[in-house]
Amino acid sequence: MLLSGPGGDALHDVASRVRVLFAGGKGGVGKTTVASTLALAQARAGRRVLLVSTDPAHNLGHLWERPVGDTPTRLTSGSRGYVDGVEIDPGRTVERHLEEVGRTLRRLMPERLSGEVARHLDLAREAPGTHEAAVLERISEAVETGLAEYDLVVFDTAPSGHTARLMALPETMSAWTEGLLRRQERSARFGAALRGLAHDDADDDGAGGLVGRRDPRAERDGEIRRVLLRRRTRFERLRETLTDPATTSFVLVLAAERLPVLETIELHEQLAKLGVDVGALVVNKRSPAGAGGLLDARRTREGEHLRVLDDALRGIPRAEAELLADDVVGEEGLARFAGLRSSAV
Question: Where is the ArsA/GET3 Anion-transporting ATPase-like domain (predicted)?
């Protein structure tokens, strides 16, 4: 049972104390099952939970046995807590992101450049980083919505490499936006100086001819600056949330095999550099003890891999879930996997 025993208690404590929880690791180790189990357990403890899949290969709907889409779908509810699920649609997310960017560009650019804006957006649709930037916007929205309307947001993430890049993006995007702001400020000052000189030549009202006049370029510069400042503020707020251990933690899910163990150690190192708290490890599909034959041999080998894990990540609580004969499917399957006693939420 995932949430029984010393490691399970520690895992339950991590999920109970934070407002934002990520479940990540190598592909195929059971991230969706662990994320859903923690969401269900917290709902049964009376919390309102938003469960969000950022993995392009979504499995929430398959696991919970019901359609789950790009907007919140109630997965389970009771007299106290509940779980709403969202599977972020990458295609729809990119299109929505580009529509918002397009609206901003068309508002700020002269109408004669509308063709250039359309061509830029077409190229951006397939450009490297567009998908990640769009998904980051959705994660930021989910965190903001979760903190305002839910008690806990649980993210079922994409495999390790993709997730590590995504977690680094708030800092990267903040720095990039800061650079754009500095360039925009220099450009605006230079443009204002040029326009002031031009008006000095044309008028002699003692104020450079600017008194009482609209200045479309200055208004456009101001709008660009406000857009950039909003983006910078949003990324900085997300970065602060992700690196606050009182608010956010990460659960690393793995199988007791060589490659998942090495990938887990590497992902932990990347998260530590970013300042993201890792609250617990979950070793899923552990071969049962005393089963004889092949399973005993596998368990012995798994123990060797776990000693490598323990040596590298000392002090992080580790929970284990045994290999099961059946697939974990549906709410009752998740409840059994967790070791929850009651079927009532």
Answer: 19-339
